[in-house]
Amino acid sequence: MATTPQPKPKVHISNQAVTLQNWYKHINWLSTILVILVPAYGLYAVRYVPLQRPTAIWALVYYFLTGFGITGGYHRLWSHRCYSARAPLRYVLAFVGAGAVQGSIRFWSSKHRAHHRWTDTEKDPYDALKGFFYSHLGWMLFNQDPKKIGRTDISDLDADPLVIWQHKNYGKTLLMAAWIFPMCVAGLGWGDWWGGLVYAGIIRACFVQQATFCVNSLAHWIGEQPFDDRRTPRDHFLTAIVTLGEGYHNFHHEFPSDYRNAIIWYQYDPTKWVIYALSKIGLTYNLKLFRDNEIQKGRLQQLQKKLDKRRAKLDWGIPLSQLPVISWDDFQSQCASGEAVLVAIAGVIHDISEFVNEHPGGKALIKSAIGKDATALFNGGVYEHSNAAHNLLSTMRVGVLRGGQEVEVWKQETGIPLKDAAGKLIVRAGEQVTRIQPLTMTASAA
After folding, report:
1. Which domain of life is it from (predicted)?
2. Is residue 312 part of a domain?
């Protein structure tokens, strides 16, 4: 009995090489029309449609309204549930958000949640590791394999009647909010129908789109990472200005449930200010703030991580636990024979041969301590040496003196819990093992 050959599994177009025969299949034509072709027509129409002052003002106002529809509505309200909003405000945000021409609430929020859950991985819809262009525009212009995009829970969005209504009627809502409404305001208001469509509609939407896309690209490319550097999100004031306050992206990825993007009063975050102002008139409520204690811990940990990296590049001397143990007789015999130029301080033996001629106090004084225990002399008996002197001395360690405080020294090193990210002891200023409280009687005798 002959077996029926099984059909080959269909390979998604994104996993196929681009050829002259299939190039058009790689393009997401709907996104390309809305993000590239329509704005291109608007830029072309500028040559023939003069810009009137009232239209320019209206386009700017509607830019901020639709921009807030994305930052305050799509992003902070629906994607992250950073706060709650009353019904009138929710309707307005759903409308002006559609006017930004970036998809429905359900589409936008599901992609954004996937971005947070799978940041910088193959499952990230706009993975920054694939390049600036891909994270800014490419992920929309070219078809993606839906099986490769990370899944997230959007059951709350599916349970929201407004979200579902807008999603099902997004085409009509977009047409009205993005182009017809701004055109009608300008046309009925001061007779500039074409200007309303071109400037307050098409050109305005283009600017809102590009500003929002910068959150996916620019915010992962320039700036600092004050809370975590394991992933690409960054904080930068320039990105904040471009994106209506969404530029403090490193903070946002660490604390996504916080209704703020910027936590310092002078940082630019108009979305936060509007949400807060609306709470004073009852349109927003339940504004979520991440615990300041955890925010400060994250900042401090990242600062310590940076310090650890800088510390690792410096010579702190051989750790005491790795030094050989030398008896007092061997220590003295090496010095007497001229085999080594050694001095013992706080139970640690140091080779000072290359420093004798550089000693600020002169050769005679330092030579007088060779082959001796110079703990008291170094710690105030002759001179209370500086922090820099103790640090320099640590780089000259060659051994630990048997019976000369080595047990106490090791206890000091293993008993202090302050260690860096690599598990190495952090030596604070004034805590070097060679720094001993001066013994009054010994100091006087010296």
Report:
1. Eukaryota
2. no
- Side-chain half-sphere of 343: how many Cα atoms within 13 Å? 21
Please tell me the distance from the alpha carbon of residue 39 to that of residue 34, in angstroms, as a whole number.
Answer: 7
Q: What is the pLDDT at residue 30?
A: 92
- Phi and psi, residue 113, nearest 5°: -65, -40
Give the structural domain span for 389. 320-445
Which pLDDT does position 168 carry in this prediction? 97
Assigned token pair, 386: 């500086």
- Verify that 335 and 255 share a domain, yes or no: no
Position 147 scores a pLDDT of 83
- The residues with which 377 forms a beta bridge, in sequence order, are none
| pLDDT recorded at residue 239 | 95
β-bridge pairing 342-345 and 348-351:
antiparallel
Helices 38-45, 204-216: axis angle to 10 degrees equals 140
Residue 235, SS3 per DSSP: strand
DSSP 11: P
Which DSSP state fits 197? Answer: I
What DSSP state is assigned to residue 243?
T
* Alpha-carbon distance values, 367 to 52, 134, 183, 341 (Å): 88, 67, 91, 9
Give the count of domains, the chain: 2
Whole-angstrom Cα distance, residue 108 to residue 205? 16
Residues 264 and 341 in one domain: no
| pLDDT confidence of residue 408 | 47
- On whether the CB atoms of residues 261 and 246 are closer than 8 A, the answer is yes
Question: b/e string for 345-377 if b means 16 or more Cβ within 10 A?
Answer: bbbbbbebeebeeeeeeeeeebeebbbebbbbb
pLDDT of residue 81: 96
Q: Which of 262, 222, 271 is nearest to 79 (CA)?
A: 271
* Tokens encoding 203: 């050109």
Q: What is the spatial distance between Cα 210 and Cα 217, in angstroms, rounded to a whole number?
A: 10
Question: What's residue 6's pLDDT?
Answer: 64
Walking along the chain (446 residues) 10 residues at a time, the average pLDDT comes out as 64 76 84 94 94 96 97 97 97 97 96 94 93 94 86 94 97 97 96 96 97 95 93 95 95 95 93 97 96 92 88 87 88 85 88 85 82 84 80 90 59 55 68 64 38
Backbone angles phi, psi at 344, to 5 degrees: -105, 130
Residue 193 lies in a domain: yes
The C-alpha angle 42, 269, 68, rounded to 5 degrees, equals 40
Q: Does any domain span residue 215?
A: yes
pLDDT at 443: 37
Say how far apart CA 205 and CA 39 lie, in whole Å.
Answer: 8
Domain-located, residue 315: no
